[in-house]
Design a protein that fits this description.
The structure holds two protein chains of two kinds. Chain A is of the alpha/beta class. Chain A is built from eleven helices and 18 strands. Chain B has one domain. Classes of the chains: A alpha/beta, B mainly beta. The interface between A and B is medium-sized, with 32 and 26 residues.
Chain lengths: ~350, ~190
C-alpha cells in the first residue's frame, strides 16, 4: 500500500490524494483517506514542508492504534466574535448563551502531513494543515463544543464520546469508478463512520466534494466512495458550498466547484448548502462547508439535550431555506441553505 | 383627611367590622363615612406584562410570530382605594384590584388594607402617616407548548422557545412577580 501526497493541477487543483489499493477477495482496500480539493489560489503559494501538528501527531506513529488524536484543547483560542464569513444566524444563536456545550465534534482529517496553506478566519493569517483549518472553523461556530481531532492516516476506528457526537468529514475516498460501495473493503476508520451514520449514533457531516458533479458522480474516471457509502444513511448530511450566505433580499448561488445533490432523492433529502465565503477567508471548498454544519449540529444538540443524532440531522434538513437561493432546485441544492435560527425555532407554538 | 374624590359611599357594615377590630365604639362607627380615594387602571405589573409582549421570532416556516398577541388584555387591572374615617384623625384605608388576564399571563385580583393617621404639630401643619398591605395581585406568566417537529413537543417559556436555551431551561425564566406588598407613606404639610 503506497501513501503519497500529490498536487493535481487542473481537475483537482490540489489535493492530498493518498490512495492505496489492495485487491483482496475482489474488494478494494482503501488505506488512507483523501482530502478534498481546495482552490489553487489559497493553496499553491502556501504549501510548504513543515513538522507535524504537535497535537495531531499524538495519534500517529507509535500511537497508531489510538483512535482519537486530541481531545479538547485547541492550539489556538477559539474566537468569540461573529466573523464576516459566518451567517448572521450564528450571532443570533450565541446571544442566548448556548454554543454547543455538551456536544463532541470529532474532526476526521489531516493533522500530520507536511501540507499547509494560508487562510484567515478573521483572527489573522495562519498557515495550517487541512485538519487544523476545519477544526478551527467548527470550533469558531460551536465555541463551547468539545472538539476532538482524528488523523485520518491512522485508519483506526473512530470512537464516540458520551453525549451527542458529530463527525466532520472534509475529505473523500476516491478510486476508479464502477464499483458499488459494498464492494469496498473499508478500513476500520471509515467502517466505523459508515456504521454510525447507518445506525444514527452520530451526526455525520460530509463535504459534498469539489468536482462540480452530483454527489457520488464520476469525475476523471473516479468516484468518491465515501459519498456513495453514506447515501441513504440515517444521520448523514452532505454539505455543498454556496458563494456566500444567502438572504431573501440578496439570494446566493452554488459555488462553481461544489458538487450538487443530483437526481437521487436519497441524496437530495440529505443534502444541505452553506455559505463558504472564500473571498473573506481565502479558503474555498466544501471542506469548509461541512464544519459549519458540524457546528450547527452541535448548537442544536446543545439546545435539545435529549435529541438523538438522527433527530438533530432531520431538524437541520427539515428547516433549510430555499428562499435565499438563486433558482432553487432540489437537484442542485438538495434541501436548501441550512438555517440555524429556524432549526432552533418551533414548528408551532400555542 | 386627604380626599381625592367627593363621592361618598356608605359601607356601614364593613365599617362596623373595622371598628370592632380597632376597638372603636359603635357609636362613632355609626357616624363613619367612606370616601373614594383613588381609582385607576394599570399598575407596574400591568406595565411589565405589557412589556413581555415586545418582540417575537420566526417559526420554522418563516412566519413571524409576535409576542403581543399573548400579552394583551381586554381589561386592564383596575384599582379602587377607599378610606373609611374612624376618628377625626384616623381612618382605615382599604381597596381592591380587579386583576387582568391575557392569553399567557394573569394578574390575580388583590385586596388592600391599611390605616391613615394624622397629627397637627402646629396650628398650620399636618403630619400624616399611612401604611397599607396588599394581598394577592401576583403576576404569573403561563408556559406554551412548542412543537419542534422531529425533536418533540416541549413545555416552554413562550418568549424563549426559539433561542439557544434548552426548552426545559426556558421555564426557569417565566415571570412570577409580586406587587408592592407594603407601602409606607409619610407626609408633612405646612400651610402658610
Amino acid at each position: 500500500m503506497s501513501r503519497s501526497c500529490r498536487k493535481v493541477a487542473v481537475a483537482r487543483p490540489i489535493s492530498c490524494l493518498n490512495r492505496g489499493k489492495n485487491m483482496s477477495n475482489n474488494r478494494w482496500k482503501f488505506g488512507i483517506a483523501t482530502a478534498l480539493a481546495l482552490l489553487p489560489a489559497s493553496m499553491a503559494a502556501a504549501q510548504e514542508a513543515a513538522g507535524p501538528d504537535p497535537l495531531g501527531a499524538l495519534c500517529v506513529g507509535g500511537q497508531s492504534n489510538a483512535s482519537i488524536c486530541l481531545s479538547a484543547t485547541l492550539p489556538t483560542t477559539p474566537s468569540q466574535t461573529v466573523q464576516s464569513w459566518m451567517s448572521p444566524d450564528v450571532g443570533a444563536a450565541w446571544r442566548a448563551g448556548y454554543r454547543g456545550k455538551g456536544v463532541t465534534i470529532t474532526i476526521v482529517d489531516d493533522f500530520s502531513s507536511t501540507s499547509r496553506f494560508n487562510g484567515n478566519f478573521g483572527i489573522g493569517v495562519q498557515n495550517q494543515r487541512h485538519g487544523e483549518w476545519t477544526r478551527e472553523e467548527a470550533s469558531m461556530i460551536a465555541t463551547l463544543a468539545t472538539i476532538r481531532s482524528k488523523d485520518f492516516s491512522t485508519s483506526s476506528s473512530v470512537t464516540l464520546a458520551p453525549g451527542l457526537n458529530v463527525l466532520n468529514l472534509s475529505y473523500g475516498m476516491y478510486a476508479k469508478a464502477g464499483y458499488s460501495s459494498n464492494q469496498i473493503g473499508w478500513s476500520a476508520e471509515e467502517a466505523s463512520i459508515i456504521s454510525y451514520a447507518t445506525k444514527g449514533t452520530a451526526v455525520v457531516s460530509k463535504a459534498a466534494g469539489n468536482d462540480s458533479v452530483a454527489v457520488g458522480g464520476i469525475t476523471g474516471g473516479q468516484q468518491d466512495y465515501l459519498d456513495l457509502a453514506l447515501i441513504g444513511k440515517t444521520s448523514a448530511i452532505f454539505v455543498g458550498a454556496l458563494n456566500g450566505n444567502g438572504t431573501t433580499s440578496n439570494p446566493t448561488g452554488m459555488a462553481w466547484y461544489s458538487n450538487t445533490a443530483g437526481s437521487n432523492p436519497l441524496v437530495q433529502s440529505h443534502f444541505l448548502v452553506v455559505g463558504v465565503a472564500g473571498d473573506k477567508t481565502g479558503l474555498y471548498g466544501t471542506s469548509f462547508a461541512a464544519p459549519i454544519i458540524s457546528g450547527y449540529a452541535a448548537i442544536v444538540g446543545s439546545k435539545f439535550t435529549k435529541a438523538t443524532p438522527t433527530q438533530v440531522t432531520n431538524q437541520l434538513l427539515n428547516t433549510a431555506r430555499t428562499d435565499t437561493l438563486i433558482g432553487y432546485s432540489p437537484s442542485v441544492y438538495g434541501k436548501g441553505e441550512a438555517s440555524l435560527s429556524r432549526a432552533l425555532a418551533p414548528v408551532s407554538i400555542k | 383627611m386627604r380626599e381625592k374624590s367627593g363621592n361618598r359611599v356608605s359601607f356601614r357594615t364593613t365599617a362596623l367590622l373595622l371598628c370592632a377590630l380597632l376597638g372603636v365604639s359603635p357609636a362613632i362607627a355609626q357616624e363613619m363615612t367612606t370616601s373614594l380615594v383613588d381609582i385607576h387602571q394599570g399598575s407596574p405589573l400591568s406595565d411589565r406584562a405589557r412589556g413581555l409582549g415586545d418582540g417575537g421570532y420566526e417559526l420554522q416556516n418563516g412566519n413571524r410570530l409576535s409576542f403581543n398577541q399573548w400579552y394583551r388584555a381586554s381589561w386592564v387591572d383596575m384599582h379602587v382605594d377607599l378610606l373609611t374615617q374612624i376618628t377625626e384623625d384616623t381612618g382605615i384605608l382599604w381597596g381592591f384590584g380587579t386583576g387582568e388576564e391575557g392569553e399567557k399571563y394573569r394578574i390575580e385580583p388583590s385586596l388592600k388594607f391599611g390605616f391613615l393617621t394624622q397629627m397637627h404639630p402646629s396650628a398650620n401643619s399636618t403630619l400624616s402617616l399611612s401604611l397599607t398591605t396588599t394581598i394577592g395581585g401576583n403576576l404569573t406568566e403561563k408556559s406554551c407548548q412548542a412543537d419542534y417537529g422531529d425533536l418533540g413537543t416541549y413545555s416552554v417559556n413562550c418568549r424563549l422557545a426559539a433561542g439557544e436555551m434548552a426548552p426545559e431551561e426556558t421555564l426557569k425564566y417565566l415571570v412570577n412577580a409580586k406587587p408592592e406588598r407594603q407601602h409606607l407613606w409619610l407626609n408633612y404639610r405646612v400651610t402658610f
